[in-house]
Amino acid sequence: MARKTASFGKRGPVKRKRRKRYQEQAKCRFCREKVQEIDYKDIPALSKLTTQQGKIFSRKRSGNCAKHQRSAMRAIKRARFLALMPYVS
Known about the structure:
- By secondary structure, this protein is mostly helical.
- The protein has helices at residues 29-32, 43-47, 59-62, 66-81, and strands at residues 8-9, 12-13.
- It has a domain at 35-89: CATH 4.10.640.10.
- A hairpin with a 2-residue loop joins strand 1 and strand 2 (12-13).
- The longest helix is centred in the last third of the chain and has 16 residues, at 66-81.
């Protein structure tokens, strides 16, 4: 019977590095704070949901639920339109 063997380097078995994954939390940040609608005037909270370039983080990256991700997108777009946030940096 043929056995599968591990790959070996010069000094023994090769250990593979594991990639870091985003840790899933039980609830999104806004659900935990029981926020109904995200306010477009709350610039510190909105800036945490965007990159330095001004791109909006995905749901997976930001940790928001679908409802609050849609609300955050609307709030960011309103803040950009009213010149409270930049479109690009």
